Amino acid sequence: MKAGKSNSTGLERRNYKWCYLFLLPSLLIFLLFYLSPILTVIATSFTKWDGFNKPVFIGLKNYMDLFHSKTFLISLKNLLAWSVIAATLHVGFGVLMAFILYAKPKGWKFTRVVFMVPNVISAAAWAMIYKFIFNDDMGILNNLIRRFHPDFHVQWFFQSPYAFWAVTCTWIFYAVIVTLIVLNDLMAVPEEVMEAARVDGATSWQLTRHIMLPLCRNAIGTGVICSITSRIAMYEQIRLTTAGGPGDDTMNIPLILVNSISDMKYGYANANGMVMFALGLIILAAVNYIFRMNDSIY
């Protein structure tokens, strides 16, 4: 018995050595291209650095300047508003489309094509499409409104408070990722569970409310994380439409970061990046807690 156990242990050790050997390239890539830049960003966020000269340590000054900046505080307010919209309307729309496609009503294939195909277009392309739609002179929206109100003129992307909502429109229906994640979980719901509920007299609404939605909890939570983190990192839609204006009405953290890099303020830009990183971790922890994503569903 001891000899057999010893041979088994030796075989496991040899297998572990091969595992470590195969993991080594991935580990080196992670250390070189991910961990090293992250550590550099953390270190230089406490410095004054123009990207050429040696960084000068200034402690928490970059972070203090950030939180005393009116532009940065407005960007946080915008992020909070966009996060609430993303977690409710955006994710809600994606979940609704998942349930529609799962139910396969009449015309569901056409609905799938109409919904899925536009989502293949990049965010930057969508921004340019909406910039044309909301154009005051040639835009479809204003020309349609002027059929009923001839004197109507609104520069949607360049007038407050319309600019915030115009930017929101460029992504709020861009929910295919949420739909695919939730639809995948819906298709994995055991048919035995659904059949047992039907035998007990459950209605379609009761099946949705008490069985399907709870079983899709993790998928919906993942959709919320994807949606809100996308709002934290949102750049193309704003840069190509409003550039943060009018004033700072549509300003966000990535735009401040890029502007800081353009001004050769790399330490300040990296402090912005660290705030984005921290916000992402906070949102991840909060959504995990709210949706109890670490708990077993079944």
Automatic annotation (TrEMBL):
Compartments (UniProt record): Cell membrane
Domain ABC transmembrane type-1: 76-287
NADP among keywords: no
Classification via Pfam families: BPD_transp_1 (PF00528)
Key word Transmembrane helix present: yes
GO cellular component, one term: plasma membrane
Annotated TM spans: 21-46, 79-101, 113-133, 162-183, 271-291
UniProt keywords, alphabetically: Cell membrane, Membrane, Transmembrane, Transmembrane helix, Transport
InterPro entries xref list: ABC_transporter_permease, MetI-like, MetI-like_sf
Membrane topology category: Multi-pass membrane protein
Main location: membrane
Biological process terms in GO annotation: transmembrane transport
Family of the protein in this entry: Belongs to the binding-protein-dependent transport system permease family.
Entry-linked PANTHER family: ABC TRANSPORTER PERMEASE PROTEIN, INNER MEMBRANE ABC TRANSPORTER PERMEASE PROTEIN YCJO
Designated name of the protein: Binding-protein-dependent transport systems inner membrane component
